[in-house]
Amino acid sequence: MSLRFIYGRAGCGKSRYCLDEIKKSMDRGDQNKLIMLIPEQYSFQAEKNMLNMLGVTHITKAEVLSFKRLCYRVFNEVGGITLKKINDIGKLMLIYEVIEELKDDLSIFNKSSKQQGFVDIISDTIKEFKRYNISPEILEHSSESIENDELKLKLLDLKKIYGAFEQKLHEKYIDAEDELTILAEKIDKSNLYNNAEIWIDEFSTFTPQQYLIIEKLLKKCKRVNITLNCDELRGNSDNTDIFYTVKNTERRILRLAEKNNVAFEKPVDLNQNCCQRFDGAEELKHLEMYFFSYPYRYYNKDINRIKLYKAQNRYEEMEVVARNIISLVRDKKYRYRDIAVVCREIDDYEKLISVIFSEYGIPYFMDKRREITDNPLVVFINSLFDIFIKNWSYESVFRYLKTGILNIEKDDVDVIENYVLANGIKGNTWFKEQWEFKINYDADETEKTAYEIEKLQKVNEIKKYISDPIIKLYKDIKGRKNIRSICGSLYNFLVDVNALNVINDWSRYFKDKGEIENSNKYAQIIDVVIDTLDEMVEIMGEEAVNIDKFSKLLNFGFEKHEMGLIPVSLDEVIIGDIARIRSHGVKALYIIGTNDGVFPRVSREEGILSDRDRNQLKENGLELAPDTKIQAFDEQFLVYTTLTTASDYLMITYPMADFEGKAIRPSSIISKIKKIFPKIVEKSQLANEANILDTVASPGPTFNEMVTELRRNHEGKEVNEVWSSIYKWYNDKPEWKNKAETIFKGLYYTNEAKEIDREKIKTLYGKPLKMSVSRIEQYARCPFAYYIKFGLKAKDRKIYEFSSPDLGSFIHTILDKFSETIKLEDMKWKEIDNNWCKEAIDLLVDKELNSRNNFILNSSAKYKYMTAKLKRILTRSVSVITEHIKRSSFEPISNELAFGTKGKLPPMILNLPSGETVELIGRIDRVDSMDLDEQTYFRVIDYKSGNKVFSLSEVYFGLQLQLLVYIDALVTNAEYYIHKQALPGAILYFKVDDPLVNGYPNMSQEEIENEILKKLKMNGLILKDARVVKSMDSGIEGYSLIIPARMNKGDTLGNTNSVVTLEQFDILRKYVRDTLVRLCEEMLSGNISIKPIKENSDTACNFCNFSSICQFDPSLIDNNYKTIDRKSDEEVWGLMEQKVKVGENSGTEQVD
């Protein structure tokens, strides 16, 4: 029995030395067993290395084992495990069950136990306890000597959970974490490794469980060899030494040897051979030797084997890595299997690598276990239970349908999705035999058309196909059923809807396409799902649960299940976490994501036992896993092993920004390498240092880059002439020729909408052309968007919601009915009070809700709250309107006054230069009038639910014409309407709202009311006539509380932009008419140009639903905004006067 250490720094050939010794032993004819004991994740590579070294004939005489395989060998010989081994999913479910039973008996973890993630934390803690040989009894015993009350309570709670878990576990099962403990008991009975020689390789430290096994092997084996990655043995080291952890391991094993009187042979120092790995790679050898030395040893020669790259983001980072890999394989004859890409946060890069490496044609294997929660079958099952739990919500139903597993056409899914969205279908509505909701919401007819009947029949057929199997399952499992029964019903459901066969079909489909990894994913998932159900039945089969709890348990199992895949080729780039990467056979290594706090990782999560707790327990003789401080030192050792992995070439990259564009700093590794290697050049795209040929790596990505360069050349920018040769290469290849020619033609494509024939336009918009003012304003904002909406009649998908237009329409309806109520009850506005307003609004709103079938405001508690809020807003608004009228001599004479062929007023007729006419129609929210000195004045009020502010500048640009058209229609048709002439008195916006006001202590009710009046002050234009202004606010002194005017002493009007003369009103009316004629003429001439307006950051595109149709892109030469430069009122008046005079001089009458 003897112990020997084989030590040396990284790359000195420790593993190779072990294999050489095994081969020599075989050559000598030694009959004792020869074993290599290595970490589980390296076993496959170690077997390959042994096979290469020994050859097929000798491979049976030596064996590669991990601790897990060692257990298997011994248990096969002497027995020992009669119970079923529980997997991680079953263990988590068992812990969950234990916590559910104990949660009310816990003290410090009473609240935590109910939180998501607590089961995981407990599982990790129990795993740690087992690896460090800590039993529930040890926890209880240790708690007795702990003075810290919090830690004492933690230990007692953990003892309860751990003890109950162990008791339940050992009734039927064995935990894989207990195997080494059992092995330590059984190995003495085994004869397998008597007089064997063992080489323990690739470990830097061991758990107490593993130390116990090593101690047993020391007593049984002829010799135990242990490799150590360090510079020297038995040297002084503190925790700043990079080899601190390894030297601690050495000291601990020496104590085991001394304890058991095992001879200690002279260690093998391989540092003299250093460094075999870096032969011919002087920079890498220098990096290994001096990265952690201080003061720095500088390398002043040229650098060829170490590269640094600073990327703008992760996408650019991975593109550069992909191009570099292609270059190594193409130009320097590397094999893909010689290359590895590693990072500390593989999840941040997994999807990017998948997309970019596939695009570049780089074969790769992602060395990580895959979560299964996004697999279609798992989504299908989870969505199914969400349907029950979330009462057939839209999200759950269509997540279920869009997995693609159910045998239903995509078009049918679209049909029923539109129907469900339009009618707000959920809950018990799915249980109805037939749906009878509307199909066409634009139709006014009460009778269904043949098309609607046919469509409704189709909807009901689809609904039945979807809902019948789900309803059957629901009836089978509703209430409280045992888990065994629910699992059986779920399995039968999956069979009935053919889900498992669909998954098998997908697996075969990907296999036939040669996508073996995808094929394996689908091949495995059925077993994973069934294993999870089996585990639930095994662990908790007879427990009665409701659907909600079953769903949580099932989802819990899915979340914790990870799928392992094997490489599908021998020649692939290996991609993985830095902590898992193999240290042998890697010629070129790419370390990506080398950012501050990422690598080396800053460990901040202390776990359920804090660093302080661990130190206290250590003082009491209880050893646990290292605290975050020690983890930080271990992370430095990981930096060392990673930087020394590659034998030929090392590239280290980092992004300067994350996915959200936030700046992130480089790791300290970058700055340290720059100091050690003063001549190293950190490359980046920002510095334009990329060789153009570096971008020519693979046909697909190069083609995309070529498109960009051809576009730049087309725009007259300087482009490297090599792109012409590249274009010729694509044009000469049959598989690329068509695509290349299409791209070339595309350079001359202009994203412009051509004018449409006048007759076609008239057909689209209607003959004769009838237009509302709001539609013309929309045309002014963007002709193309107008054409799509009103010409092609494109519509948003109908959704069962209460949108802004719905809100505006509802408010207008109630305000109109409120005015009608006053008329019907023969009341006067000046007679009603706030209480009457409230009662009237409540009654009107309730009546409106009851009169509408399937109205959204009746559909849920959320919308009922909104209804209550609407009542408050409307009550406040009509109270303020009443106050306005009480203070005014103007009286409402009409609400929702329509002008047009069917209105009380005739349409405004626009005479276009082409000889055609346009009928202008509209509806005025409220018209007030007043007689003063035998002259009648009109006032137009427009109700708005949003913040609408009158702007002369917007009037000038044709964006705000409504109020002026309304007053023009009234004044022009006054004789027709009121049988006498009238003048414009005011055009005003009124905001419908119940505003919050800033108050102060002892504020009176009158002061509060005045503040509310200020908040709801109308805005717009008022006739510059003191008598008219006083008629609108009889109590005006200074600034009015209700209108945009100010009265000075002596009853003279103050100068504000909101008061205008009669002449100015005339100018406005004439200018607006001219503008309407101009816009209508443009419209009928077929102008549908993509010219959205832009004012500062506000554009017509901001809330446009048609951007995917027009594909407006301001970066293209032919796509430009129509820029609106906001003008002062003085500028607007000057420009309007000038244009109106030009129009008058032309002598054309444009409006009848």
TrEMBL record:
<dbReference type="GO" id="GO:0008409">
    <property type="term" value="F:5'-3' exonuclease activity"/>
</dbReference>
<feature type="domain" description="ATP-dependent helicase/deoxyribonuclease subunit B N-terminal">
    <location>
        <begin position="5"/>
        <end position="288"/>
    </location>
</feature>
<dbReference type="GO" id="GO:0003690">
    <property type="term" value="F:double-stranded DNA binding"/>
</dbReference>
<feature type="binding site">
    <location>
        <position position="782"/>
    </location>
    <ligand>
        <name>[4Fe-4S] cluster</name>
    </ligand>
</feature>
<protein>
    <recommendedName>
        <fullName>ATP-dependent helicase/deoxyribonuclease subunit B</fullName>
        <ecNumber>3.1.-.-</ecNumber>
    </recommendedName>
</protein>
<keyword id="KW-0004">4Fe-4S</keyword>
<comment type="subunit">
    <text>Heterodimer of AddA and AddB.</text>
</comment>
<feature type="domain" description="PD-(D/E)XK endonuclease-like">
    <location>
        <begin position="771"/>
        <end position="1111"/>
    </location>
</feature>
<dbReference type="GO" id="GO:0004386">
    <property type="term" value="F:helicase activity"/>
</dbReference>
<dbReference type="GO" id="GO:0046872">
    <property type="term" value="F:metal ion binding"/>
</dbReference>
<comment type="similarity">
    <text>Belongs to the helicase family. AddB/RexB type 1 subfamily.</text>
</comment>
<dbReference type="GO" id="GO:0051539">
    <property type="term" value="F:4 iron, 4 sulfur cluster binding"/>
</dbReference>
<dbReference type="InterPro" id="IPR014140">
    <property type="entry name" value="DNA_helicase_suAddB"/>
</dbReference>
<keyword id="KW-0227">DNA damage</keyword>
<dbReference type="GO" id="GO:0000724">
    <property type="term" value="P:double-strand break repair via homologous recombination"/>
</dbReference>
<keyword id="KW-0408">Iron</keyword>
<dbReference type="InterPro" id="IPR038726">
    <property type="entry name" value="PDDEXK_AddAB-type"/>
</dbReference>
<comment type="function">
    <text>The heterodimer acts as both an ATP-dependent DNA helicase and an ATP-dependent, dual-direction single-stranded exonuclease. Recognizes the chi site generating a DNA molecule suitable for the initiation of homologous recombination. The AddB subunit has 5' -&gt; 3' nuclease activity but not helicase activity.</text>
</comment>
<keyword id="KW-0547">Nucleotide-binding</keyword>
<keyword id="KW-0411">Iron-sulfur</keyword>
<dbReference type="Pfam" id="PF21445">
    <property type="entry name" value="ADDB_N"/>
</dbReference>
<dbReference type="InterPro" id="IPR011604">
    <property type="entry name" value="PDDEXK-like_dom_sf"/>
</dbReference>
<dbReference type="Pfam" id="PF12705">
    <property type="entry name" value="PDDEXK_1"/>
</dbReference>
<dbReference type="GO" id="GO:0005524">
    <property type="term" value="F:ATP binding"/>
</dbReference>
<keyword id="KW-0234">DNA repair</keyword>
<keyword id="KW-0540">Nuclease</keyword>
<keyword id="KW-0238">DNA-binding</keyword>
<keyword id="KW-0479">Metal-binding</keyword>
<keyword id="KW-0347">Helicase</keyword>
<feature type="binding site">
    <location>
        <position position="1110"/>
    </location>
    <ligand>
        <name>[4Fe-4S] cluster</name>
    </ligand>
</feature>
<dbReference type="InterPro" id="IPR049035">
    <property type="entry name" value="ADDB_N"/>
</dbReference>
<dbReference type="InterPro" id="IPR027417">
    <property type="entry name" value="P-loop_NTPase"/>
</dbReference>
<keyword id="KW-0269">Exonuclease</keyword>
<feature type="binding site">
    <location>
        <position position="1101"/>
    </location>
    <ligand>
        <name>[4Fe-4S] cluster</name>
    </ligand>
</feature>
<feature type="binding site">
    <location>
        <position position="1104"/>
    </location>
    <ligand>
        <name>[4Fe-4S] cluster</name>
    </ligand>
</feature>
<keyword id="KW-0378">Hydrolase</keyword>
<keyword id="KW-0067">ATP-binding</keyword>
